[in-house]
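Pasting as-is:
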Amino acid sequence: MFDAMTDTKRRVKLYALNADRQWDDRGTGHVSCTYVERLKGVSLLVRAEADGALLLESKIQHDTVYQKQQDTLIVWSEADNFDLALSFQEKAGCEEIWEKICSVQGKDPTIETTQDIVEESEDERFDDLSDSAPPVELPLCEIGRLKEIKDLFITCMATPLNKDRLAEAIENDGYVRKLVKLFNLCEDLNNLEGLHCLYDIVKNIFLINKNALFEMLFADDIIFDVIGCLEYDPTLPIRKYHRHHLKNVSKFKEVILITNLELLNKIHQTHRVQYIQDVVLPTPSVFEDNMLSALSSFIFFNKVEIVTLIQEDEKFLPDLLGQLQDESTPDSRKLELVQFLKEFCNFSQNLQPPQKEGFFRTLTSLGILPMLEMTLMSEDVNIKQAAIDILTILVEFSPSVIREYILQQSSDTVTQANGNEVELMLMNVIIEQMICDTDPDLGRAVQLMGVIRVLIDPENMLPSLSKVEKTDFLNYFYKHSVQILIGICCTQIILRNYF
């Protein structure tokens, strides 16, 4: 047992898909595949890393569809469409458990799906047809046969069995790359009819909703060509120039040198796939719901991996926050850095609470709050706005972390500055920036007012610490901060009466 609980190869995160089609983190632990007498079969067991509690006990059923995705994921559905996923720390661990699942089901472990994925009920699984139905024969990839290819795809999409056979044919024949070559040829020849056909063909490949095809579509060397195919929607009067936008307008800017190529490639891929989902694909009503959830899952797990890789990088975050705190850093450079950090914090909003908390704790330990004090007081309104946005994200997720920092800051400052702490407090910096907002619409002031309201609200203080937090923080606030608010109110009343 001890070896199993310390083997990083079998270290996993367990996820469950909730009613909103979002993945909930059910905990980190170690997975094993063993016979369970009570269940009368070989089962997947996950025991919590912290205390050994049983997080998962799932018998491997012979008719359950298991999928291996992105080398480190195993996804399946249990009764009543209860979707589960194991995210492995190491590829070798994923392969080991996958081989055991395939062994129980009598399947070939070199495939990525243990069963044909059919979207009908048990009584409608075309059992009699599945063995006798011939494989889909794809036409040669030639310009003159594009309409034939398009019509074949549309026909196959009509039934789950044929859709799955079509997916197998595309995957086995390397058809995506052949279509991409044809796309480049059609663009060179300005063959608009062919490009319209390719739009429908590629759209239907997305509709198939198969992870192996997503991996092909999102390969680094062809993803822009795939996006190019989706620029030629025959139903739109004006073509959308998505590739130009991605390459020149919304291009990911590497503000800090990323030496980890795996991280860099994952960031680029996620940025592009997110754009495909949000902008390039037709409106969601055109697509099936499960297609949208499959893409969301693809992006979600990419983001989990990116956050993990960045936290494991010993130089990236310290370098970023260090440059932001360095007074010699030019404002133009600070703007790039703080906007990247804002984007990354927004990006982390999609994480589950335990992962998000770990990420923000890392940022706090590296000095994000002292950095925000400096950037909030910046004369550059864009830097100031980005700092306010980051602070808002932090406060909305964990106001107690901010309160803890302010109380510690107060204690340290009293010792070091003998009572001259008022001007140095993060809380007072927030209040002063709210008061001094130069925006005619008071947009930043309203945002900072919301931050203050959350921080001084006793209802959102941690239950286990509420008594201490309420006493200490509110005592601090009314002793050191409230006079600033009252002072400006009194000043405004005097000025109004005088003039």
